Amino acid sequence: MTAALTGQAPTAQKTTAQQNSLHHVVIVGGGFAGLYAAKSLGKAPVRVTLIDKRNFHLFQPLLYQVATGGLSAGDISSPLRSVLSRQKNVKVLMGEVVDIDPDAQKVTLKRNEVINYDSLILATGSSHHYFGNDHWANIAPGMKTIEDALEVRRRIFLAFEAAEKETDPARRQALLTFLVVGAGPTGVELAGALAELAYETIKDDFTNIDPQETKIILLEGMDRVLPPYPTDLSAAAKVSLEKLGVEVRTQSLVTNIDGDTVSIKHDGEVADMQACTVLWAAGIKASPLGRTIAEKTGAETDRIGRVMVASDLSVPNYPNLYIGGDLAHFAHQDDDGKPLPGTAAVAMDMGSYLAKTIKAKLAKKPVSAFKYKSKGSMAVIGRNEAVADLNFMKLSGFPAWFIWIFVHIYFLIEFDNKLLVLLQWAWNYFTYQRGARLITGDDSIPALSEAVMNEMETEIVTVDGGKKEMVKA
Predict the structure, then answer these.
(1) What distance in Å separates the CA atoms of residue 405 and residue 421, rounded to the nearest whole number?
(2) 214: Cα within 13 Å, side-chain hemisphere
(3) Which of 30, 52, 232, 312 is the most buried (most CB within 10 A)?
């Protein structure tokens, strides 16, 4: 049948055939590792399919600002199709990969769609780690997704609204107590943002309560905040936090959360405190795909579910199956076998490296091992307050804060995001205002709901003239 009869131009037929014959790279996950890999493969002689269960890339380092009303969700999110629209060899699919067959070289999506691949990059990130206490998740949310940040924002501002109406002083103080668990960069930044919110932004917004009475407590199991940082920067961060009004408690572990009662162990003793808002920043665990990979390939995983990869980020015995970002346990760089941290900078470099590796293999050129060159680390505490370890120098205070702003603006994906965030930060800086202080969803406070349920489960009955406590089944 001729091309004229089929209605399809010969050139189009040829182009489609050529495209289908190209090496097919499937990337699962549109985070830093997946997106940087896709962007770096833009001009390569391959066809790329990027799969993510969300249709946008999320700039996770700024999630805490969404949670505290400083930025809107759209300010730190970029539609994947828009970001990759100029790369004609890249196709974006919205879907969730639930299974992998590394021998048949195919992935299965949630609705049973099957996609074949020649090379596969898995970069599905991580989630919260409650160290065997997953039942705490409802009361102590973490922040890994936009939905998480909006839920945290809902609880923070709802706590102030509930305190405004509360007549019981003890319950009001519990509503005004915010407990941040984990003093890594996320916990430190969140605690600092909460302090600025309570003590500056909304200090004059209420009639019946004084937000200055808010208690913000930062808990850390180690002996200092920001444990991976140099000791002098940790000390500087602690001073900055306390200057903002944050109460820092180190060598303190949460042992139980029951409604609005939190049990904390310090120096071998356990004490209870009342807090209606508990925010979790104490640990991460790899996405469930790590376990699937281990089952299908025999690869080893570490205690948080990351896949132990070879020096080229491939899964042992599967040279065309690669792991990137938080899902990868890469321990080939450090002599003591310590894996690289799950940071955005590491994930970006992994994504770019994987693209170069695939291109080199297709060109039958030698492939060098992945090597991450640290560009330093930094954490912001509040207005004009941050710490930065730049390898060649260590900074704190305003210089570190200024560098932190520049770096985060630079690495935002799209120009409109850069501009919007810069303008919003400038407005916040000069006015002390946070324009995204919205409460969405219902008006329930999980800690209070659970506390009320616990009270309802206990009935006091009188037996032989004495009182006996009886718990209902």
Answers:
(1) 10
(2) 31
(3) 30
Residues of the chain with pLDDT under 50: 1-6, 12-14, 456, 458-473
Alpha-carbon distance 377 to 229, whole Å? 8
Return the ∠ at Cα 91 (arms to 85 and 93), rounded to 5°.
110
Sign of CA pseudo-dihedral 219, 223, 229, 232 = positive
Q: What is the pLDDT of residue 335?
A: 66
Check residue 450 and give its pLDDT. Answer: 67
Q: Are strands 328-329 and 307-308 parallel, antiparallel or unpaired?
A: parallel
Q: What is the CA radius of gyration of the chain?
A: 25
Q: What CATH topology corresponds to 21-53+95-128+285-362?
A: FAD/NAD(P)-binding domain (3.50.50)
**Matching residue, tokens 């991580």:** 126
Topology agreement, domain 21-53+95-128+285-362 and domain 134-282+376-449: yes
Contact of 309 with 301, CB cutoff 8 Å: no
Tokens (6 digits) for 454:
């616990």
**DSSP string spanning 48-116?**
EEEEESSSEEE-GGGHHHHHTTSS-GGGGEEEHHHHTTT-TTEEEEE--EEEEETTTTEEEETTS-EEE
CA distances from residue 207 to 160, 165, 204 in whole angstroms, order as listed:
11, 10, 8
CATH assignment of 134-282+376-449, among 1.10.1660.10, 3.50.50.100, 3.10.20.310, 1.10.1060.10: 3.50.50.100
Residues assigned a catalytic role: 189
